[in-house]
Design brief:
This protein is α+β, with helices and mostly antiparallel strands. The chain contains ten helices and 14 strands.
Length: 377
């Protein structure tokens, strides 16, 4: 594999890398989409739960379109799923295609069930995803370390980075997006596909998001591990701020003036009362919201804005071309379960993630390594 040019963010945990084998195949990597709402049982739209094996969502839509005559633009979906592994997700399509979809057959794509609903499925209409991951060649000593890493993440949460899927096979989507945004062209040529341009620019926004969240992880580590004077000197923070940060017992430190959001759903707001919001953060009522740069993004203030400005200075002059938004910088595992089969040297885990979070990002933080860097992977 070629070296990625995308920024590699700091991982949440600091233990030594854990050795094991991971493969995104249909037995060892399973994703099940959790809908945002139940189907009504009536209406002009079919709601189909599909199961696909080693197919991207777009490939699945193409197969369905080819067999049934449904135009791809008529098919609704809540989110894109990994190509590798076994995944299930919901699709919506016009009711008139009920007979065609019920007769659909393909070795890598199954229609699990069909119901009816009033509205077409839109991107974002999902609660999240449940994941099952099996690791192989796991020694007993490493199984203990995996269990401890999972317990730690379950307790403290994890940095909610964008995953490698966002940045392309060679990690060059972000640089391509920067070039399109700043020059209007890619390698001197204008792209004819506006959706591709938007996707590449979003990869650039995502890369900057990862850099900001990584800086917050760095600050959190430094505050925990070094003295007040060392933190003051390294970051040029004043004494009052450093004392406020060091008084926080949780790993991820909340900053005055940063943008927070109700977790897992809710509006954004500024951190005006640090003590109150830290208490709510530790109870998982709220979380830190990272920036996806753009004109409509909720603004931070004070020291939080100063840190953002350093990271996002290169995109600020172009933000009028972007809508922008906020995304969880810090997130949590739900419904965590894991077990170790010593005889087979298999370690299995399952958990639920809110929409937009990446299981591969969580796995990298558990293993404390790039999951595609070592030959075992």
């Amino acid at each position: 594999m070629q070296n990625h040019t995308t920024f590699k963010p700091l991982l949440t945990l600091t233990h030594a890398p854990i050795n094991c084998h991971f493969s995104k195949n249909s037995d060892d990597f399973v994703v099940r989409e959790v809908p945002l709402y139940k189907t009504s049982g009536e209406g002009e739209h079919l709601m189909c739960e599909i199961q696909k094996k080693d197919l991207s969502t777009q490939q699945a839509l193409s197969l369905i379109s080819e067999q049934t005559g449904i135009k791809i633009r008529e098919i609704g979906y809540a989110g894109l799923k990994d190509k590798q592994g076994m995944t299930t997700q919901m699709l919506s399509l016009p009711r008139k295609f009920q007979s065609a979809i019920e007769n659909f057959t393909h070795e890598k794509l199954k229609i699990l069930n069909v119901n009816f609903h009033n509205n077409k499925l839109r991107v974002g209409h999902l609660k999240g995803n449940r994941f099952f991951i099996r690791l192989k060649k796991v020694m007993p000593s490493d199984a203990l370390r995996l269990a401890q890493a999972l317990k730690t993440l379950d307790t403290q949460g994890y940095a909610n980075y964008f995953g490698y899927q966002r940045f392309g096979k060679y990690g060059d989507n972000s640089e391509a997006g920067r070039e399109i945004l700043t020059k209007g062209t890619l390698q001197g040529k204008r792209l004819k596909n506006p959706k591709l341009s938007e996707f590449l620019i979003s990869a650039y926004q995502s890369d900057l998001f990862n850099k900001y969240v990584s800086k917050r992880v760095e600050i959190s580590r430094f505050v925990s591990d070094f003295s007040e004077s060392e933190v003051m000197n390294y970051y040029d923070f004043d004494k009052t701020l450093v004392k406020a940060l060091k008084s926080q017992k949780q790993f991820y430190k909340i900053l005055p003036g940063e943008v927070l959001g109700h977790y897992p759903f809710g509006k954004c707001f500024l951190c005006d009362d640090l003590n109150t919001e830290v208490d709510r953060f530790t109870k998982r009522d709220i979380t830190s919201m990272g920036l996806l740069a753009g004109a409509k993004a909720y603004r931070a203030s004070g020291i939080a804005k100063e840190i953002e400005d350093v990271i996002f200075t290169q995109i600020n002059e172009y933000e009028s071309k972007l809508n922008g938004s906020r995304r969880f910088a810090w997130a949590y595992l739900d419904e965590l379960d894991f077990k170790y089969n010593e005889e087979k040297a298999h370690f299995s885990m399952s958990f639920f993630l809110q929409k937009g979070s990446y299981a591969t990002v969580v796995l990298e933080q558990i293993l404390n390594r790039d999951i595609f860097e070592q030959s075992d992977f």
